[in-house]
Design brief:
- The protein is of the alpha/beta class.
- 36% of the residues lie in helices and 22% in strands.
- It has a single domain, classed as 3-Layer(aba) Sandwich (Rossmann fold).
- Helix 1 links the parallel strand 3 and strand 4.
- It is globular.
């Protein structure tokens, strides 16, 4: 499947790129893939390729561009973890949502995109997927083990399009008390679905990651696939 680095925006002082993967058919609905704290790395590119194989036009924007363009880290060394957490601490969420909104506009105007746009994010991206549901006109969105959602639950009433969250019950970065707060806060919002996965830690869907759990990952990915098929095709 064709893939390339593309320029998403070069206006108003913003110059950032994204990894774009196209389906073999050459066209399809769009999906914005939202990075973890490790940048647009191999894992995120593989997510794009997987979505392209399912018939979507998938793009993962470089959200750390204003801190350091083209960041590509992994979860295998303490040094890279430290650098990833440093980026996370410095990251401006409002700027990130603005960049994601620009990415939606880019994808909607792309000749390969047939119309509707979804989003899927992991970790940091899981929270941003939630905020895309509250602040943008994305047609649907999915978050995996989003960190920090509990701080922004007051925005949940702004959700107008379908949204799904996958929660890891043993998430070391999201205490159980916050998980329950998220589940309770979102359960009353029309169009929002929250799935909890017992016995798994943060990043259970990151293949080859320290906490990868194939059973839970396959179930979450199947639910995500059905969700996108329902709302985008």
């Amino acid at each position: 499947m064709p893939a390339s680095i593309v320029n998403i925006s070069e206006e108003k002082g913003e110059k950032f790129t994204g990894f774009l993967a196209l389906p073999d058919s050459g066209s399809g609905p769009g999906i914005v893939v939202i990075q973890e704290i490790f940048g647009v790395n191999f894992v995120m590119r593989e997510v794009c390729h997987t979505l392209a194989a399912q018939g979507y036009v998938a793009i993962c924007p470089d959200l750390f561009w204003s801190l350091e363009p083209s960041v590509e880290l992994c979860d295998k060394t303490d040094g890279e973890w430290a650098k990833a957490f440093d980026f996370y601490k410095k990251f401006n969420v409002d700027q990130g949502i603005s960049d994601l909104d620009i990415t939606i506009k880019y994808l909607r105007s792309h000749s390969a995109c047939t119309g509707k746009i979804g989003a899927v994010g992991y970790c940091l991206g899981g929270k941003l997927a939630y905020l895309m549901a509250t602040r943008t006109n994305v047609d649907c969105s999915v978050g995996y083990y989003g960190v920090g959602i509990g701080d922004d639950l007051d925005e949940s009433t702004n959700i107008k399009f379908p949204h799904m969250q996958h929660v890891a019950e043993e998430d070391q970065f999201v205490p159980k008390e916050e998980q329950q707060k998220i589940i309770k806060g979102l359960s009353s919002i029309e169009g929002v679905t929250v799935h909890s996965y017992p016995g798994v830690d943060h990043a259970f869907a990151r293949i080859n990651g320290a906490h990868y759990d194939q059973k839970s990952s396959d179930l979450a990915n199947s639910r995500t696939s059905d969700f996108f098929n329902e709302h985008l095709t």
